[in-house]
Design brief:
mainly alpha; TPR-like_helical_dom_sf; Cro/C1-type_HTH; Lambda_DNA-bd_dom_sf; Helix-turn-helix transcriptional regulator; 17 helices
Protein backbone atom coordinates (compact mmCIF):
# COMPACT_ATOMS: atom_id res chain seq x y z
CA UNK A 1 0.00 0.00 0.00
CA UNK A 2 1.03 3.61 -0.55
CA UNK A 3 2.23 5.05 2.77
CA UNK A 4 -0.06 7.61 4.35
CA UNK A 5 -3.20 6.75 2.38
CA UNK A 6 -6.04 4.88 4.03
CA UNK A 7 -7.48 2.83 1.18
CA UNK A 8 -9.84 0.99 3.52
CA UNK A 9 -11.69 4.19 4.42
CA UNK A 10 -11.49 5.42 0.82
CA UNK A 11 -13.06 2.14 -0.28
CA UNK A 12 -15.82 2.56 2.29
CA UNK A 13 -16.49 6.01 0.85
CA UNK A 14 -16.76 4.55 -2.68
CA UNK A 15 -19.18 1.92 -1.39
CA UNK A 16 -21.29 4.66 0.21
CA UNK A 17 -21.38 6.60 -3.06
CA UNK A 18 -22.40 3.47 -5.00
CA UNK A 19 -25.11 2.65 -2.46
CA UNK A 20 -26.44 6.23 -2.55
CA UNK A 21 -26.91 5.79 -6.32
CA UNK A 22 -28.72 2.48 -5.71
CA UNK A 23 -26.20 0.58 -7.84
CA UNK A 24 -25.01 -2.97 -7.23
CA UNK A 25 -21.43 -4.01 -7.95
CA UNK A 26 -22.71 -5.99 -10.94
CA UNK A 27 -24.44 -2.89 -12.34
CA UNK A 28 -21.27 -0.81 -11.87
CA UNK A 29 -19.30 -3.54 -13.65
CA UNK A 30 -21.73 -3.49 -16.58
CA UNK A 31 -21.59 0.34 -16.87
CA UNK A 32 -17.82 0.68 -16.52
CA UNK A 33 -16.36 -2.48 -18.00
CA UNK A 34 -14.55 -3.18 -14.73
CA UNK A 35 -14.89 -6.60 -13.14
CA UNK A 36 -17.13 -7.14 -10.14
CA UNK A 37 -14.11 -8.58 -8.32
CA UNK A 38 -12.08 -5.40 -8.94
CA UNK A 39 -14.86 -3.21 -7.60
CA UNK A 40 -15.17 -5.43 -4.52
CA UNK A 41 -11.43 -5.28 -3.81
CA UNK A 42 -11.31 -1.50 -4.21
CA UNK A 43 -14.26 -1.04 -1.83
CA UNK A 44 -12.60 -3.30 0.73
CA UNK A 45 -9.27 -1.46 0.46
CA UNK A 46 -7.53 -4.62 -0.77
CA UNK A 47 -5.93 -3.06 -3.87
CA UNK A 48 -4.55 0.29 -4.98
CA UNK A 49 -6.97 1.60 -7.62
CA UNK A 50 -5.40 2.68 -10.91
CA UNK A 51 -5.70 6.23 -12.19
CA UNK A 52 -7.85 5.10 -15.15
CA UNK A 53 -10.08 3.07 -12.85
CA UNK A 54 -10.81 6.10 -10.66
CA UNK A 55 -11.51 8.20 -13.77
CA UNK A 56 -14.02 5.62 -15.05
CA UNK A 57 -15.73 5.22 -11.68
CA UNK A 58 -15.73 8.99 -11.17
CA UNK A 59 -17.59 9.47 -14.46
CA UNK A 60 -20.30 7.03 -13.35
CA UNK A 61 -20.47 8.32 -9.76
CA UNK A 62 -20.35 12.00 -10.81
CA UNK A 63 -17.49 12.54 -8.35
CA UNK A 64 -13.87 13.66 -8.71
CA UNK A 65 -12.43 10.54 -7.09
CA UNK A 66 -8.82 11.59 -7.61
CA UNK A 67 -9.43 14.72 -5.53
CA UNK A 68 -11.46 12.72 -3.04
CA UNK A 69 -8.52 10.35 -2.55
CA UNK A 70 -6.43 13.21 -1.13
CA UNK A 71 -8.80 13.39 1.85
CA UNK A 72 -7.76 9.86 2.82
CA UNK A 73 -4.01 10.35 2.74
CA UNK A 74 -3.72 10.07 6.52
CA UNK A 75 -1.64 7.23 7.91
CA UNK A 76 -3.36 4.10 9.17
CA UNK A 77 -1.28 4.52 12.33
CA UNK A 78 -3.04 7.76 13.21
CA UNK A 79 -6.37 7.48 11.38
CA UNK A 80 -7.92 5.70 14.36
CA UNK A 81 -7.37 8.83 16.45
CA UNK A 82 -9.73 10.89 14.29
CA UNK A 83 -12.89 9.90 16.12
CA UNK A 84 -11.25 10.47 19.50
CA UNK A 85 -9.98 13.88 18.43
CA UNK A 86 -13.39 14.79 17.04
CA UNK A 87 -14.72 14.21 20.53
CA UNK A 88 -12.33 16.86 21.80
CA UNK A 89 -13.75 19.32 19.29
CA UNK A 90 -17.45 18.85 19.92
CA UNK A 91 -17.53 17.57 23.51
CA UNK A 92 -14.65 19.49 25.13
CA UNK A 93 -13.81 16.33 27.13
CA UNK A 94 -10.77 17.12 29.30
CA UNK A 95 -10.41 13.54 30.54
CA UNK A 96 -10.44 12.26 26.97
CA UNK A 97 -7.71 14.76 26.15
CA UNK A 98 -5.48 13.29 28.83
CA UNK A 99 -6.10 9.73 27.58
CA UNK A 100 -5.31 10.62 23.99
CA UNK A 101 -2.04 12.29 24.97
CA UNK A 102 -0.97 9.09 26.75
CA UNK A 103 -1.88 7.02 23.67
CA UNK A 104 0.27 9.26 21.51
CA UNK A 105 3.20 8.82 23.86
CA UNK A 106 2.80 5.04 23.57
CA UNK A 107 2.55 5.20 19.79
CA UNK A 108 5.73 7.25 19.50
CA UNK A 109 7.64 4.77 21.66
CA UNK A 110 6.51 1.91 19.41
CA UNK A 111 7.67 3.67 16.24
CA UNK A 112 11.28 2.95 15.33
CA UNK A 113 13.63 5.39 13.64
CA UNK A 114 13.07 3.68 10.29
CA UNK A 115 9.38 4.50 10.26
CA UNK A 116 8.17 6.43 7.25
CA UNK A 117 8.85 10.15 7.59
CA UNK A 118 5.29 11.01 6.53
CA UNK A 119 3.95 9.10 9.51
CA UNK A 120 6.27 11.01 11.84
CA UNK A 121 4.97 14.24 10.32
CA UNK A 122 1.36 13.22 10.87
CA UNK A 123 2.06 12.26 14.47
CA UNK A 124 3.66 15.66 15.04
CA UNK A 125 0.67 17.36 13.42
CA UNK A 126 -1.75 15.51 15.68
CA UNK A 127 0.32 16.42 18.73
CA UNK A 128 0.31 20.11 17.84
CA UNK A 129 -3.44 19.95 17.32
CA UNK A 130 -4.07 18.32 20.70
CA UNK A 131 -1.76 20.79 22.45
CA UNK A 132 -3.69 23.60 20.78
CA UNK A 133 -6.96 22.28 22.23
CA UNK A 134 -5.32 21.84 25.63
CA UNK A 135 -4.09 25.45 25.72
CA UNK A 136 -7.48 26.66 24.49
CA UNK A 137 -9.13 24.87 27.42
CA UNK A 138 -6.74 26.80 29.67
CA UNK A 139 -8.02 30.10 28.19
CA UNK A 140 -4.70 30.71 26.39
CA UNK A 141 -6.34 31.72 23.14
CA UNK A 142 -3.39 33.31 21.33
CA UNK A 143 -1.07 30.48 22.34
CA UNK A 144 -3.61 27.97 21.08
CA UNK A 145 -3.75 29.79 17.74
CA UNK A 146 0.01 29.36 17.44
CA UNK A 147 -0.16 25.60 17.93
CA UNK A 148 -2.87 25.18 15.30
CA UNK A 149 -0.81 27.20 12.82
CA UNK A 150 2.28 25.11 13.59
CA UNK A 151 0.24 21.97 12.89
CA UNK A 152 -0.55 23.27 9.39
CA UNK A 153 3.07 24.33 8.83
CA UNK A 154 4.65 20.92 9.45
CA UNK A 155 4.59 19.80 5.81
CA UNK A 156 4.21 23.33 4.37
CA UNK A 157 7.42 25.33 4.90
CA UNK A 158 5.91 28.33 3.09
CA UNK A 159 2.65 28.31 5.03
CA UNK A 160 1.43 31.70 6.26
CA UNK A 161 -1.84 32.32 8.05
CA UNK A 162 -2.77 35.22 5.79
CA UNK A 163 -2.53 32.92 2.74
CA UNK A 164 -4.39 29.92 4.21
CA UNK A 165 -6.90 29.99 1.32
CA UNK A 166 -4.16 29.09 -1.19
CA UNK A 167 -3.48 25.61 0.20
CA UNK A 168 -5.18 22.23 -0.10
CA UNK A 169 -5.98 20.33 3.08
CA UNK A 170 -6.54 16.75 4.12
CA UNK A 171 -9.74 15.82 5.91
CA UNK A 172 -7.94 15.91 9.25
CA UNK A 173 -6.50 19.35 8.45
CA UNK A 174 -10.05 20.61 7.85
CA UNK A 175 -10.52 20.01 11.57
CA UNK A 176 -7.55 22.25 12.28
CA UNK A 177 -9.04 24.98 10.07
CA UNK A 178 -12.31 24.62 12.00
CA UNK A 179 -10.51 25.12 15.30
CA UNK A 180 -8.71 28.14 13.87
CA UNK A 181 -12.11 29.56 12.92
CA UNK A 182 -13.40 29.01 16.45
CA UNK A 183 -10.32 30.68 17.94
CA UNK A 184 -10.76 33.66 15.62
CA UNK A 185 -14.33 33.99 16.87
CA UNK A 186 -13.05 34.04 20.45
CA UNK A 187 -10.72 36.85 19.39
CA UNK A 188 -13.76 38.72 17.99
CA UNK A 189 -12.56 38.27 14.38
CA UNK A 190 -16.02 37.15 13.33
CA UNK A 191 -15.74 37.77 9.58
CA UNK A 192 -12.54 35.72 9.29
CA UNK A 193 -14.03 33.06 11.55
CA UNK A 194 -17.09 32.80 9.30
CA UNK A 195 -14.93 32.46 6.21
CA UNK A 196 -12.93 29.61 7.72
CA UNK A 197 -15.93 27.79 9.16
CA UNK A 198 -17.90 28.07 5.91
CA UNK A 199 -14.87 26.64 4.10
CA UNK A 200 -14.93 23.67 6.51
CA UNK A 201 -18.69 23.27 6.18
CA UNK A 202 -18.48 23.13 2.38
CA UNK A 203 -15.76 20.48 2.54
CA UNK A 204 -17.54 18.36 5.16
CA UNK A 205 -20.81 18.53 3.22
CA UNK A 206 -19.04 17.15 0.14
CA UNK A 207 -17.94 13.89 1.77
CA UNK A 208 -19.71 10.84 3.14
CA UNK A 209 -20.70 11.65 6.69
CA UNK A 210 -19.57 9.45 9.53
CA UNK A 211 -21.33 10.29 12.80
CA UNK A 212 -18.38 12.32 14.07
CA UNK A 213 -18.33 14.41 10.90
CA UNK A 214 -22.07 15.02 11.24
CA UNK A 215 -21.35 16.45 14.68
CA UNK A 216 -18.63 18.67 13.22
CA UNK A 217 -21.11 19.94 10.62
CA UNK A 218 -23.52 20.85 13.41
CA UNK A 219 -20.71 22.62 15.25
CA UNK A 220 -20.11 24.64 12.06
CA UNK A 221 -23.78 25.65 11.84
CA UNK A 222 -23.89 26.63 15.50
CA UNK A 223 -20.72 28.72 15.37
CA UNK A 224 -21.81 30.47 12.19
CA UNK A 225 -25.13 31.35 13.83
CA UNK A 226 -23.32 32.63 16.91
CA UNK A 227 -20.86 34.70 14.86
CA UNK A 228 -23.64 36.38 12.90
CA UNK A 229 -25.39 37.09 16.19
CA UNK A 230 -22.24 38.88 17.36
CA UNK A 231 -22.16 40.81 14.07
CA UNK A 232 -25.80 41.86 14.63
CA UNK A 233 -26.79 40.08 11.42
CA UNK A 234 -29.67 38.27 13.02
CA UNK A 235 -31.40 37.02 9.88
CA UNK A 236 -28.21 35.24 8.90
CA UNK A 237 -27.95 33.89 12.46
CA UNK A 238 -31.48 32.55 12.03
CA UNK A 239 -30.61 31.08 8.62
CA UNK A 240 -27.70 29.02 9.94
CA UNK A 241 -29.50 27.89 13.09
CA UNK A 242 -32.37 26.69 10.89
CA UNK A 243 -29.90 24.87 8.63
CA UNK A 244 -28.41 23.14 11.66
CA UNK A 245 -31.84 22.16 13.02
CA UNK A 246 -32.84 20.77 9.62
CA UNK A 247 -29.59 18.76 9.54
CA UNK A 248 -30.43 17.32 12.99
CA UNK A 249 -33.88 16.30 11.75
CA UNK A 250 -32.58 14.76 8.53
CA UNK A 251 -29.97 12.66 10.34
CA UNK A 252 -32.00 11.95 13.50
CA UNK A 253 -29.50 13.72 15.76
CA UNK A 254 -30.06 15.53 19.04
CA UNK A 255 -26.47 16.72 19.36
CA UNK A 256 -26.32 20.56 19.43
CA UNK A 257 -30.08 20.78 18.86
CA UNK A 258 -30.80 22.66 22.15
CA UNK A 259 -28.02 25.15 21.34
CA UNK A 260 -29.27 25.65 17.79
CA UNK A 261 -32.82 26.15 19.04
CA UNK A 262 -31.54 28.71 21.53
CA UNK A 263 -29.66 30.60 18.82
CA UNK A 264 -32.79 30.46 16.65
CA UNK A 265 -34.97 31.81 19.47
CA UNK A 266 -32.66 34.72 20.19
CA UNK A 267 -32.43 35.57 16.48
CA UNK A 268 -36.24 35.44 16.20
CA UNK A 269 -36.58 37.73 19.23
CA UNK A 270 -34.14 40.27 17.80
CA UNK A 271 -35.90 40.45 14.42
CA UNK A 272 -39.36 40.65 16.01
CA UNK A 273 -40.56 37.12 15.22
CA UNK A 274 -43.21 36.23 17.83
CA UNK A 275 -42.33 32.52 17.72
CA UNK A 276 -39.13 33.12 19.67
CA UNK A 277 -40.60 31.78 22.94
CA UNK A 278 -41.42 28.43 21.31
CA UNK A 279 -37.83 27.98 20.14
CA UNK A 280 -36.30 29.09 23.44
CA UNK A 281 -38.57 26.92 25.60
CA UNK A 282 -37.93 23.91 23.35
CA UNK A 283 -34.22 24.48 23.90
CA UNK A 284 -34.65 24.53 27.68
CA UNK A 285 -36.87 21.44 27.71
CA UNK A 286 -34.43 19.46 25.57
CA UNK A 287 -31.58 20.37 27.91
CA UNK A 288 -33.61 19.18 30.88
CA UNK A 289 -34.70 15.97 29.15
CA UNK A 290 -31.10 15.11 28.30
CA UNK A 291 -29.96 15.74 31.85
CA UNK A 292 -28.26 19.12 31.32
CA UNK A 293 -30.25 20.88 34.02
CA UNK A 294 -27.40 23.14 35.12
CA UNK A 295 -26.91 24.41 31.58
CA UNK A 296 -30.68 24.88 31.26
CA UNK A 297 -30.69 27.01 34.41
CA UNK A 298 -27.77 29.04 33.03
CA UNK A 299 -29.66 29.66 29.79
CA UNK A 300 -32.74 30.75 31.74
CA UNK A 301 -30.76 33.16 33.91
CA UNK A 302 -28.68 34.67 31.10
CA UNK A 303 -31.72 35.09 28.85
CA UNK A 304 -33.58 37.03 31.53
CA UNK A 305 -30.58 39.14 32.54
CA UNK A 306 -29.80 40.14 28.95
CA UNK A 307 -33.18 40.19 27.23
CA UNK A 308 -35.75 40.19 30.11
CA UNK A 309 -37.28 37.05 28.62
CA UNK A 310 -38.75 34.65 31.19
CA UNK A 311 -38.24 30.96 30.41
CA UNK A 312 -39.18 27.89 32.41
Amino acid sequence: MIPGIDFTCFGMKLQEIRSSLHLTRIEVAVHTGLSKDTIYKIEKGMVIPKYDTLEILGYLYKEDLLTLLTFYRESRHVYEFNQKIDGLIYNNDVEALSRIKKQFDTLKMEMDTNSIQLIHGLIEQYEMFITGIETLNCQKTSESLGYFLKALSIDRPTFRFESWRQFKYSLFEIRIILMLGIVESMLSEYELSNEMIRFCLKTLNNIAHKDTEKFLILKCYYNLSYNYHCLNEHRKALFFSDKGIAFCQTHYLSYALPHLLYRKGIAQFLIGNKRYLTSLNMSIQLLKITGHTTLAETFIRVTYDKYKIKLS
